[in-house]
Every structure is written in C-alpha cells, then in structure tokens.
C-alpha cells in the first residue's frame, strides 16, 4: 500500500497540486448601468462563465494537400445566472444597464431612444478566483461588456424554487492576470509516520 509521499505520476512529478475550486470566486462590475451601485448584483450572482475564445480556421488548399491556419479570434458570450432578490436590488442594476443601451422601461424622451454609441453604455467586469479567503489567485478583466439577453424566467405555482434571471453578456476583450499566491500549492498534507520495518 502506498503512503502519501508516493502520490504523483512516475516520470512527471510527485504530489498533487491543489485545484482552484468552482465555489471560490467573485464577480464585480464597473460602470454598469451608467455607474449604478453594482454591489447588489455581485451579491446575487450564482453562476458565471469564465471567458472562452475560439479562432476561425482558414483552410489553405494546394495541389494534393491542405493546411490549416488560425484566423480571427472570437470571444464567446458569457452566461450569468442571478437570483432575483425580494427587494429587487439586483434586477434594478440590470434594468439600469438595459436603459443605458435602449430605454425600454421608462423613456428618457418622447421616443424609445437607443444609445448613440457603445462608449455610453459598455461596462467592465472583473472575475476573481479566490483561495478560500481574500487572496486573489487570478483575475479575468473583461472589457467592453453589454447585456445581449436578459431572460427573467418563468413563475410556477407548483414550485418553491427561487426566481432567477439568465443574462447573456457580450464583450470585446478579456485578459487574465495570474495572482501572486505564495503557498506551496499542494493538495496533500497530514503525512503519517512510516510503518514499522519500512524505509
């Protein structure tokens, strides 16, 4: 039977690195809704997609062969799920942002005016992965954000689940900043003494 010091992959390394955990994160928003207080929205977010990108593939054909090169890249939309709280503080932030994009709920003039340029309604988002306390392991800075879809879901007399709002967020760019975690970063610990007669 192996002891804890034997964990690892032969020829690769010993031990097991501590993974980042899915429930240790926070999302904050800067400039959403024209500068609305976004803390209530951050408190009510329950799921948040990490950024994903893909490259267009360009096929190059020659005499009897083909090759592939990378074309333009494309950031995929981010899905966010928010709990709709009873005081509507989270949904008020979403409403303020939608109004910045296009005055759908209460107009700013005699018509349903659309925002004339993206710089007037786009916001930034920060997704921090945490160590279980307050140390940031990595930060995704997401720029040029706007709400593409806001689905307020359905209500149902037969269900006692919480009401959720599904948001699809489009954005222009994202970059990852790796934190300066100073621990050992290993998942194993609590090694015991060797059994009698072992070396």
How does this structure look, described?
By secondary structure, the chain is mainly β. The chain has one domain: Pnp Oxidase, Chain A, CATH 2.30.110. Helix content is 10%, strand content 38%. It has 2 helices and 11 strands, in the order βββαββββαββββ. Strands 3, 4, 7, 8, 9, 10 and 11 form a 7-stranded antiparallel β-sheet that branches. Strands 1-2 form a two-stranded antiparallel sheet. Strands 5-6 form a two-stranded antiparallel ribbon. Strand 1 and strand 2 form a beta hairpin. The radius of gyration is 24 Å and the shape is extended. The model has no long low-confidence stretch (mean pLDDT 91).
Structural class, judged by helices and strands? mainly beta
CATH fold group: Pnp Oxidase, Chain A
The Cα radius of gyration reads 24 Å
Secondary structure tally, helices: 2
Note poorly predicted spans.
none
CATH architecture: Roll
Any idea how many domains? 1
User: Would you list the SSEs in sequence order as H and E?
Assistant: EEEHEEEEHEEEE
Largest sheet: 7 strands, antiparallel
| Fraction of residues in H or I helices | under 10%
Q: State mean pLDDT (0 to 100 scale).
A: 91
Reading off the top of the CATH hierarchy, the class is best stated as: Mainly Beta
**What is the percentage of strand-forming residues?**
35-45%
Shape: extended
How far from one another are the termini? 13 Å
Number of strands: 11
Summarize it.
Helices cover 10% and strands 38% of the residues.
Which key terms come to mind for this protein?
199 residues; mainly beta; Pnp Oxidase, Chain A; 7-stranded antiparallel beta sheet; 2 helices; 38% strand; extended
């Amino acid at each position: 039977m192996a002891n804890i010091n034997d964990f690892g992959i032969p020829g690769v390394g010993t031990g097991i690195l501590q993974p980042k955990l899915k429930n240790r994160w926070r999302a904050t928003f800067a400039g959403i809704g024209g500068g609305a207080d976004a803390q209530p929205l951050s408190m009510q977010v329950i799921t948040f997609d990490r950024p994903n990108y893909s490259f267009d593939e360009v096929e190059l054909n020659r005499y009897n062969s083909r090759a592939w090169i990378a074309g333009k890249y494309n950031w995929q939309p981010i899905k966010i799920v928010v709990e709709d709280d009873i005081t509507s503080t989270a949904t008020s932030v979403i409403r303020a942002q939608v109004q910045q994009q296009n005055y759908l709920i209460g107009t700013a003039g005699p018509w349903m005016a659309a925002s004339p340029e993206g710089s007037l309604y786009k916001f930034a988002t920060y997704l921090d992965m945490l160590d279980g306390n307050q140390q940031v392991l990595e930060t995704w800075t997401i720029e040029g954000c706007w709400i593409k879809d806001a689905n307020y879901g359905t209500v149902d007399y037969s269900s006692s689940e919480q009401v959720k709002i599904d948001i699809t967020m489009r954005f222009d760019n994202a970059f990852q900043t790796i934190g300066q975690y100073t621990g050992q970063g290993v998942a194993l610990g609590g090694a015991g003494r060797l059994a009698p007669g072992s070396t």
